[in-house]
Predict the structure.
Amino acid sequence: MIKLIASDMDGTLLNDKLELSQTNAQTIKKAQEKGVEFIVATGRSLTEARPLVEGAGLKASYITLNGAMVFDPDGNVAVEIPLEKERTQDLMTLLNQHGFYFELVTNKGLVSDSRVGRIKNVADLIVSLNPGTDFKTGIALASARAELMDILYVDDYNKILNDDSFKVMKMVVFDENGPDVFKDLRHTLEQKDDLIITSSSPNNVEINHKDAQKGIALARYAEEKNIGIADVMAIGDNYNDESMIRTAGLPVAMENAVPEIKELSKYITDTNKNNGVAKAIEHFIDLN
């Protein structure tokens, strides 16, 4: 019997317009009314994730930043697993040497050293999710979204590292040319045994502390709720979902998921454009 559902956001809970549909929201509410716990498990920060979820009328707990921070439904911090400061400095040096644009995701929100770089990468994501959308339109949409997000822009990331009130929870590297340009970088990063390297889209690489993983956070959350792993459903589509897909008793892949996630899953639902999360929940909650 499913007692806990964990869902990724981008490519899963959110549709191709980066919105949480009313169909998904209403189905989750029905499951909650039947006593099923629901937790969002995302690479996004709480400030990015929560408005989309609560804007659809939902209340949930959150595994954010791939597991680096976990929050209860009221937004209180339950878990924090930051990158070590020295490691962050080393990574910054490496990424700058290779000319990559990257962002820091901190305990105080997202930090960027380039407004242009930030907007461009959001535009790339919008265009990739909506093939009929041209880049100019993507830029316009991205600019509007960027204004709604609480982003701190700095001219030097060292200002953040030198401020002890900031903790770097995750680093995200971007390149519009996709996985090919990341091969050497990923190889270098994967040699560092204190890190976990994932991605949530073809145009990024996400860097976390090795203990900051969705699967680890989900297992801890289930244990705190006295829910056995066999009674946990996890729904995802991309590489940063792998640890929770491997952890859950019922792993579910989106139809639009990468092949590796599909291979690990016991059930494949519809696409994120067609309310795949709602369809998976309806199917298995009916079985309950």
